[in-house]
């Protein structure tokens, strides 16, 4: 947990040590939002052993909840945030009720299928821009005040919510619920033998992960002030899954480290060459092959 605290402290200090420019704060906000989404996915992958390729659907549903309410001129966070988190959690519970009955490759494929269904549904919403996306009239308000228009306020809001998601995830894993969840990941038959059914625990975890991803979707929509179906694409789910793997499956803080490393490396290579993907792809493959335990494992060995 020390590595995560160091990273959070560095993010808190960033605006005051020469990284206070608008572009840099926007980049850091994006990294923190994706880190929050990666934390929610880690609860499934690292905590419950459920590898999902449709997790971006919950992120996108949270973002599209902002769109629907924005079109209705409802922009207050007291309404937007609960609706977005509730919609994402409901989608997770409904689809998870089916998907969790499978495992392994079957679970991966059925989550991918549900994710693509959500993607094509949003792409068909002509009232909200369809394939072209939807530009928000303005950022979400808080008590009628446009505090999120201030980049510094938005930066610290993202940081605070990321820290809250990280702390909440740690508390969840340390609880009796989390212990059953992790035990079911290792040996579901043994968990059943001692009187616990893994299914409801996994379903609740799926719903919680969906709610956190929905909150990240609200922040993502506000950061860009634009929402498009690409938020729900399977490629975004793949990015989130790779962030989790890059950071390390053995620790929740790995999701934060992986997301920050992914976004910053992507940005750095993009400034070096227009063909940055030809470098980025092999680097990701090599990191999976040789970074045993992910970035968290490297830090522990170092």
Automatic annotation (TrEMBL):
TM region(s), chain numbering: 32-65, 77-100, 106-131, 152-173, 203-228, 240-264, 276-299
Q: What is the superkingdom listed in this entry's lineage?
A: Bacteria
The topology of this chain with respect to the membrane is: Multi-pass membrane protein
**Keywords assigned by UniProt, alphabetized:** Cell membrane, Membrane, Transmembrane, Transmembrane helix
| Keyword check for Membrane | yes
Q: Which residues form the signal peptide?
A: none
Question: Where is the protein situated, by its record's location annotation?
Answer: Cell membrane
- One GO location term (cellular component): plasma membrane
Mind listing the GO molecular function terms for this protein? Answer: branched-chain amino acid transmembrane transporter activity
Protein name as catalogued: Amino acid/amide ABC transporter membrane protein 2, HAAT family
| Species the sequence originates in | Belnapia rosea
Taxonomy, top ranks, is: Bacteria, Pseudomonadati, Pseudomonadota, Alphaproteobacteria, Acetobacterales
């Amino acid at each position: 947990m020390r590595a995560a605290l160091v990273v959070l402290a560095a993010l808190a200090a960033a605006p005051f040590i020469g990284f206070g420019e608008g572009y840099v704060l926007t980049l850091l906000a994006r990294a923190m939002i994706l880190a929050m989404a990666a934390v929610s996915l880690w609860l499934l992958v690292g905590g419950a052993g459920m590898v999902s390729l449709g997790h971006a659907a919950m992120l996108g549903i949270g973002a599209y909840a902002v769109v629907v309410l924005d079109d209705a001129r409802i922009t207050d966070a007291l309404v937007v945030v609960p609706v977005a988190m509730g919609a994402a959690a409901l989608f997770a519970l409904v689809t998870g009720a089916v998907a969790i009955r499978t495992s392994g490759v079957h679970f991966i494929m059925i989550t991918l299928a549900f994710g693509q269904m959500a993607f094509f549904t949003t792409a068909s919403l002509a009232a909200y821009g369809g394939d072209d996306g939807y530009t928000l009239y303005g950022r979400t308000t808080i008590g009628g005040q446009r505090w999120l228009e201030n980049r510094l306020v938005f930066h610290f809001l993202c940081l605070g919510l990321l820290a809250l998601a990280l702390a909440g995830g740690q508390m969840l894993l340390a609880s009796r619920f989390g212990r059953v969840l992790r035990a079911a990941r290792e040996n579901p038959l043994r968990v059943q033998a001692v009187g616990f059914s893994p299914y409801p625990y996994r379903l609740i975890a799926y719903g919680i992960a969906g709610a956190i991803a929905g909150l990240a979707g609200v922040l993502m929509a506000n950061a860009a002030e634009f929402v498009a179906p690409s938020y729900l694409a399977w490629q975004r789910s793949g990015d989130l899954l790779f962030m989790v793997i890059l950071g390390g499956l053995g620790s929740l803080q790995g999701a934060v480290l992986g997301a920050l490393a992914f976004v910053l490396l992507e940005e750095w290579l993009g400034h070096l060459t227009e063909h940055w993907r030809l470098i980025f792809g092999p680097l990701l493959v090599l990191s999976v092959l040789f970074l045993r335990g992910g970035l968290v494992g490297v830090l522990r060995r170092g």
